[in-house]
């Protein structure tokens, strides 16, 4: 069932993606605000309770609906519920329009427009970035977005679907990433006070939850790209990224298509109130170049390679799931 649920969700999302201002995501943002406002009292135990309510409670609701439908209505309707959950939690179209617009601007030679679009996407000051740095950061943000919106969700949904917990896996992964980013962002811009204890709990749990998906994404990128270079980048260069999980993904990406990643120019020039809601890592000006991977300077042609890398990775995921589904049916 997991294979067909994922396939249908991806096809529907390609045909009719969720809009940026959709009621489902608005409701989840309101839920995260409500949880932190009512239960975040500043102590470590309150941080964990708040995180559990914000992330685990919706996951348990999604799982309960799945099992109720399975038991009382039938597996076809339960599968449709899985499709709905996956449609909300994964999808390229939640971020790909940013990538496409920036790529088109660069191909047309309109670097000013590309900088403007990048700044709007990540809420940063990109006015001084040269062309190669625009491309580099577009690659980094896009790869991390693909990992978080697609491959990470696929990983936890597929793993937990083997024991009947697929919807919970998808919801936990996406909400864990969201609340970690959202609470940090709202506290930083002064929209809502969020305690250090809650931010720490959210960051720690997100790091743990993303550990396995990040390495699975890196492995698939290696398989569909330059395997030897990707593994070498993973092994010898991932430690240069302060955020280990993001570093694994970016190092594997750099090796897979032989491009130099890890640039920190955007973070150095970002205004304090305009920092991105998520980033590939943080570093000071002196260490910016030392955090870069080996490889060629980023060029617009690398953007097409990224698209190919991501889609080949999706095909590998689907083939593996199809084989597992067939083995289960035959077994």
Describe this entry's structure for a reader:
The protein has 331 residues and is mainly α. 73% of the residues lie in helices and 0% in strands. It contains 13 helices and no strands. The chain has helices at residues 2-15, 23-39, 44-72, 75-89, 96-107, 111-122, 131-161, 166-188, 196-224, 227-237, 244-257, 265-269, 300-330. The chain is globular, with a radius of gyration of 20 Å.
N-to-C SSE string, H for helix and E for strand: HHHHHHHHHHHHH
> What overall geometry do the principal axes of the alpha carbons give?
globular
Residue windows where pLDDT falls under 50 for at least 5 positions:
264-290
Distance between the termini: 15 Å
Helix content: over 70%
Q: Report the total helices.
A: 13
Largest sheet: none
What's the Cα radius of gyration?
20 Å
Q: Find the count of extended strands (DSSP E, 2+ residues).
A: 0
What number is the mean pLDDT?
Answer: 86
Supply the helix-strand structural class: mainly alpha
| Strand residue content | under 5%
